[in-house]
Fold this sequence. Notes:
By secondary structure, chain A is mainly beta. Helices cover 8% and strands 51% of the residues of chain A. Chain B has one helix spanning 411-420; strands at residues 19-23, 26-27, 31-39, 43-52, 58-67, 70-75, 80-82, 87-95, 102-112, 117-127, 131-134, 147-153, 158-165, 172-174, 177-180, 184-185, 194-196, 201-208, 214-222, 225-234, 242-245, 255-261, 270-280, 295-296, 303-308, 323-326, 332-340, 350-354, 360-369, 372-380, 388-395, 406-409, 426-434, 442-451, 454-465, 471-473, 476-478. In chain B, the strands form 9 sheets. Chain B has a 7-stranded mixed sheet. Strand 1 (19-23) of chain A pairs antiparallel with strand 33 (426-434) of chain B.
Amino acid sequence: MRVIxxxxxxxxxxxxxxQSALDRPALGQMLDRQNSLRPVYGVGGSFHLDxxxxxxxxxxxxxxxxxxxxxxxxxxxxxxxxxxxxGGAVIAVDATGATIYFPxxxxxxxxxxxxxxxxxxxxYGTVLSLGSSSSGLTxxxxxxxxxxxxxxxxxILDSLPLGAGAALLTPNGIVYATASSLILRKxxxxxxxxxxxxxxxxxxxxxxxxxxxxxxxxYALRTIAGHEQLFQLPQAETGRGANxxxx
Amino acid sequence: MTRAAILLLLAPAAAHAQxxxxxxSTNVTNSxxxxxxxxxxxxxxxxxxxxxxxxxxVTITKLALAGSGFGIxxxxxxxxxxxxxxxxxxxxxxxxxxxxxxxxxxxVQVSTDQGYAVQVILTxxxxxxxxxxxxxxxxxxxxxxTINFGSIAESQTATCxxxxxxxxxxxxxxxxxAVTGAGFMMPQAPATPLNLPVGGSxxxxxxxxxxxxxxxxxxxxxxxxxxxxxxxxxxxxxPTPMLQFDTNTPQSGQQVTLTMALPTPSPNxxxxxxxxxxxxxGSVSTLANGDPTIMFVASGARSVPFSIQQGSTQATxxxxxxxVFQTGTTTGKITFTVSTNTPLSGDPTTSITxxxxxxxxxxxxxxxxxxxxxxxxxxxxxxxxxGAMQFTFYDNLGKPIxxxxVTADFSSNFRTYFxxxxxxxxxxxxxxxxxxxxxxxxxSVNVQLTNSAGTSTISQxxxxxxxGTCVLIGNILSCPPGPTQ
Lengths: 247, 485
């Protein structure tokens, strides 16, 4: 109790001990309809987009501290441009880097601090999503129309219902799409369903948010336990007014 | 026919005159031109061109018209020099108004400085005619005999009763009656020949049925009489749209779906936009910066296009039945208006008021690191008046630490932040308490945030240890758990 008493006494004696910093609430980065990567600020239901930080992006994933994007030829993040296998990518971001699967060469890689190291890891099936967690790497793969969640050693951990399309492995559970819904399967196995037709792609927008892309609508699903909610992301305003605001 | 005096005053030199008279392309020099039968009460017009067909100049020194029923209504004053190849225009009108029926003639003589004159004899016959009257909604005939159907909505029909009356002293026979022109029709034309006895009349209907918004013109022909028909059509007004929301009590920080319905089916296909404007409450207007987060998400702007199909009562927004908008994070009033090229039956303007609320906490986290306790709060303050806070710390057994809550006032920090914010009142706050010793002994904290609308509380926010770094061991990435709750 000695230390605790010191804290309380110090704070009570002078408010100057408590330091406050205020900043824009950064939620992550989204891929807009023009495939530009845009920072997203605000709170749930009140989003604000900034000007693009990268264009011609094929895939992206963000955590609270890091965003990694893939263009046709490179992995880009925080000023780093790292040559990478051509084409799309499946990205899982964690606290220090990203694990990336390159479908064109069917290889996994570990990106960290601007350096890309290919991993000797192979899986059977179409890789839909990767999840990096303290328990290791998990992979969502589609095999003969069924999506399986497997460990990096190939052990089957879970599966998704028949008809599941796009999927994303997140720290808060598995997000997957059906024809008419977006489903959040929580770590305890329970599921929450949100109406969202025609979701084609799901990306990690930031801590506790995923972006679901469906036709003309971009959804943001909040996955934090107790705060699960589906929102729509603003489209990037185009035209003269938007340009003036972005100056 | 006492007025049918023949005027033949041909000058000898006219045989080789270089000045010729034309009606259209017909040379009428020193000959007769007939206007034919002219219905009594109407006029007949003819334009005569006195043209210099020679190679040298000639000057018209005098114009003279002799005879009854005719008059020169427009020409140039004399003397009038006419260059080779040029003409002088002479407009003559026949009107037997007030005069008897029968034949009329007159001469138009043009004298030159060359010592000769040329002339043309004009003839016309004034015949008895029916008088036309129309009933509402039509008006006319006016001074140009035009019948006007007025202005009606496109695809609608205006029907007027036309009455032909014989006000003359003799029986009239209408041998032809017809309506021409797009949009005009006579559903049941009177049978011809139509005999109208003295004082008699006959009625028939003429309809105006325009298919699209435009000005229309046509004609009703009764024997030789022509009555121009006129009418205009406009886009019919749209029934006043009703703007509705999927919540009865919109609040800040929400996404709300707007729908637009019509009380009756749309008379035609309509497009336009729904626009919103935001007026911050007076208490925050100096800090709110207009709150750019208030917008329609489909457009990322404060205007969203809509369309309504003909016969539908529901507007669609890019194929969706509703348009989602963000209410933002500022207390005030959002006003919605509708813009369209189609007139509206009424004003659909609708407003929603966003009431001031206590600080809304979107997320919170507490982290114990070496030398400090960090408390992070993400949220918004739609009153722009936050700053007063209380922190109550608890040990790992849930017992309060110290003698009571720790108070702090960060009002000036918030005001400074809000002044430059581009995200409305949304904020991410980090409060750091320096500490000596083992921070792990602090278990949780209660946080109270106060603004002008009240106090909100974050209860039992559990401190977590600082995150470390992920380590790649072989192909396995090992990361500590994250700090966010």
